[in-house]
Write a structure and sequence with these properties.
- The protein has 333 residues and is of the alpha+beta class.
- It folds into three domains: 133 residues, no CATH class; 70 residues, no CATH class; 88 residues, Chitinase A, domain 3.
- It is built from 13 helices and nine strands.
- Helix 2 crosses helix 5, helix 3 packs across helix 4 and helix 4 crosses helix 5.
- The chain is elongated.
- InterPro entries: PPIase_dom_sf, PPIase_PpiC, PrsA_foldase, Trigger_fact/SurA_dom_sf.
- This is Basic membrane protein, putative.
- Pfam families: Rotamase_2, SurA_N_3.
- GO terms for molecular function: peptidyl-prolyl cis-trans isomerase activity.
């Protein structure tokens, strides 16, 4: 109960010490469009923040709750949140300049459908969901919706603007073929080998085994005799699994040849190349769409970055932003 009362006190203090706001409760105006105290409080969600802090660190919670400095930290946090809201609103207004801002009705339809679909999946109604949100210190369902409305407005407006800016991006056949030819290795499978291979720590033993194999014994019988669990390696890509020095011998050995013992790092290898599948490259038509999507994506990314660097920076500098929310205020007794 004491912690709950402290929480109410600090939340109330943040409201009292924030500033004497106009009757409209406007905390900022961006190019004539207002951001309200209600929006700021909803985005900052100090109550949820404080509850979370109290559950993790009681000492820090006490400092925030019982000191003027603690209250100022929260006020500064809210100012950072407000700056974020201002920047997001600038993005929406920038999108509007190019006809990419969603209407309020469009945004609400999207969010309401998302919530409706979620409730159907969970098999609950809005009243139950509202109770859950409040229990989880996430505010009411209406608070939740309003936060989603704004975030959806920002994200979908940004998505629409991206599509507007990059709609003329294209990839020519020449570009596709040029990329394919320069990156042919990326669309190739390496040479693969099927080997019968065993290794010993003793050279004399390895030589004796080699003689047995030449005399007609199989790798299978040798493996069984010496307790070797694995001796068959199928479709091993070149330059994998085995030491590089050994691969020099494998790659130069004719198919069907028996080689060894070969000393590599004090191990004596005996192997037979059973089969070789040469490197194979995918045909251009098989990878055409993949290459096109990759090049197009890169072009759009560059177009977008250049556009934002030049046009949005200019729009932001020319915008009028008035902030009425103060931070460095003295506590009232």
């Amino acid at each position: 109960m004491k912690r709950f009362l402290l929480l109410l006190l600090v939340v109330f203090s943040v409201v009292i010490f924030s500033e004497e706001l106009p009757a409209t409760s406007t905390v900022a105006v961006v190019n004539g469009e207002a951001i309200t105290l209600e929006q700021l409080n909803r985005a900052a969600d100090v109550q949820k923040l404080m509850i979370g802090i109290s559950q993790v660190d009681q000492t820090f919670f006490s400092v925030l709750s019982n000191t003027e400095e603690g209250v100022k930290v929260i006020l500064r946090y809210k100012r950072v949140v407000l700056d974020d809201l201002v920047n997001k609103l600038l993005i929406v207004q920038f999108a509007q300049k190019y006809g990419a801002r969603l209407s309020e009705e469009e945004v609400r339809n999207v969010v309401d459908k998302q919530i409706s679909d979620y409730l159907d999946q969970q098999g609950i109604d809005e009243k139950t969901f509202d109770m859950y949100l409040q229990y989880a210190n996430m505010g009411t369902l209406e608070d939740f919706k309003e936060k989603m409305y704004f975030e959806t407005l920002v994200n979908l407006s940004l998505e629409r603007l991206f599509n507007v800016v990059t709609k003329d991006a294209t990839v020519s056949d020449e570009e596709l073929m040029d990329y394919y030819q320069k990156h042919i290795d990326e669309y190739s499978t390496p040479t693969q080998y099927t080997l019968s291979l065993i290794a010993f720590d003793n050279e004399k033993v390895a030589n004796a085994v080699k003689t047995k194999i030449v005399s007609g014994e199989t790798f299978d019988s040798i493996a069984s005799e010496y307790g070797i669990s694995q001796f068959k390696y199928e479709n091993i890509a070149e330059d994998t699994t085995f030491p590089g020095k050994l691969w020099n011998y494998i790659k130069n050995a004719p198919q069907g040849a028996l080689l060894g013992p070969i000393d590599v790092d004090e191990k004596y290898y005996i192997f037979k190349v059973e089969n070789v599948v040469p490197m194979q490259s995918k045909k251009f038509d098989e990878v055409r769409e993949e290459i096109s999507n990759m090049i197009l994506s890169e072009k759009k990314k560059n177009m977008w970055a250049n556009f934002i660097d030049s046009e949005f920076s200019k729009f932001k500098n020319e915008s009028t932003v008035e902030v009425y929310y103060k931070v460095d205020v003295e506590q009232k007794n």
